[in-house]
Amino acid sequence: MERRTIFAGWVLPVLLVAPQLLLTVFFFLWPAGRAMWTSLERQDAFGIRTEFVGLDNFADLFADPLYLDSAVRTVGFCAAVAVLAMGTALLLAVFADRDIRGRAIYRTLLIWPYAIAPAIAAVLWVLLLHPQIGLVAHGLKAIGILWDYKLNDAQAMTVVILASAWKQVSYNFIFFLAGLQSIPKAVIEAARMDGARGWRRFRTITLPLLAPTMFFLIVVNIVYAAFDTFATIQALTQGGPGKATETLMLKVYRDGLINLDLGSSSAQSVVLMLGIVVLTALQFRFIGRRNAE
Amino acid sequence: MNGRVDWVAHGVLCCGVLLFVLPLWLLLAGATQDAGAISRGELSLLPDLRNLGVFWSVLNDRAPGGAPVWHMLLVSAAMALAIAGGKIIISLLSAYAVTFFRFPFRMLCFWTIFITLMLPVEVRIVPTYAVMADFGLINSFTGLAMPLIASATATLLFRQVFVAVPDELVEAARMDGAGPLRFLRDILLPVSAANMAALFVIVFVYGWNQYLWPLLVATDPSLDTIVIGIVKMIGQDSVTDWNRVMATAVLALLPPVAVVLLMQRWFVKGLTEGEK
Question: Domain containing B35: what range?
Fold first, then answer.
């Protein structure tokens, strides 16, 4: 959409757009370009000499079983977080959209967790699941489950998934509720007249109309699970025990800033960037098509 | 609707609310209890009201080798406010420029800003760190806040609002002799006030909750944010003062929650309209 009426002159607009542009170039484009360049180089053990190695870093990466393990783990983790966070949110939104008493209060009580930092979510879950002090952990022990997520791989994964999904529910809830409210009441009413009830009405009428919201949220949740959960995982397990909860994000951080393997870390960054580009492109394609229909 | 109480809905929603309120309640209750009892696993659901002073006294606590809690809260507040203010201002100005003017490389500017949607700080941590080091911005407040100010989302949001301003209004303002800056101040600012409020909430929460970026760029304890401080506290092998950690977590959680609750109406509207 273009405006017909515009102001003349180009000095003022250039000045206005300059701060945003400078920040973008210095803190986004330059580092991204540098990541791409460094991913093609390799440093010697002392960090003195650097040589151009082409795509060797990428070849090494995809030949590295540890990296592939981490990639598979990340995909599973993202899927689990997205399904759990979106499923819970959709269930709550459907009922919060009903015409019941006190729904404003329910909504507020379900929206506030949006403000919780991923790292703070981890603290809350420590209180529930810490092997020594956790309330739920004691319950699990009482029924005979050996609970210690700092030693048990599967338990560690469960904990980081629960804490990560928990934090994202309210974000999804806000969007699902907005999506449900934008469905014209006449459509629901017509379905009711036709005798579509309960689950069938939800599946055949509501769900298809929620599809754009759903798709948008799938992308957002995957990006959240892949990147923003860094703090949650770091606070809960630091990727351990062993590498049981090490996602690609933790691996980039560890390889780049702890092990100082710049070439490999940059190659990993480039792979992650490609992942985001694909997700964003998918999202725009899908939303664009919906609008064209 | 038909006078019957919808028990299923109330049941499901109550469970949902408990899922979020219970951990928070546990945190509040735990903060007031005896550290020894918590370590033995005797965390009670009833707060000990005699110990409410813990929230006050914890302000002077510090992680080993770190800054006191009150200082970390201040750093967090300053950082969140700087990011929120900075982001709103530069996004407003750049959206204004690309919407109401024609200048060379206008679309290139727009796409350059737009493409940052695909480059979250997480995917380029090492090179961004290197660039910051080149500028000498490691361990400075500027380095903490400035890179997080650039934003495609906010620019797109304002552009959306500006595009919807009717051409007649712009014409009328011009007839009255309003220059571009007066038009911005007298017409566009009031029109986008609600969006600014929404954006403030979103960006304040975003800034307050940052973890990875401060971890990278500020190793100096005097620049620790409260979120960094909390993770340091629970990261130690043998945490003893669990009640004080919990009290600190409550303090870390309150400001962003308060902002969301106080500005809930604008925030929900702005969030769902802006991101699609």
Answer: 1-52
